[in-house]
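WARN no homologs supplied; continuing
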Amino acid sequence: MDNRTTIQVSEDIRKQLRVLASTRDSSYQELLEEMITVFRELDETKTIISIPKKLGNEIGDRIQGSDFNDLSEYVTFILRLLLFKEELVEKDDKLDNVRRRLESLGYL
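OK structure emitted
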């Protein structure tokens, strides 16, 4: 016997999923399979961020042949880089403030 999980969904949610599938130009079954894939990838230590598909495709094309295994790894790297740069700017601003204060007090 297959290892299956049954999820009960109300008729209202089923209707909404069918409408969503039709707006995405995919079948109801394809939508459910995509949702199952997302649920399998869920991890309590991670969060899901949505970006436009066109942008995702462009990034995917750009990282082909690079050391990045997937889009998520690349986006995580870029976000960490941005946060690090922001921290450096904040530290530099604090140093400038200290320098100005020391100058105003005649120490520099």
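The two ends are 80 Å apart (CA to CA).
OK
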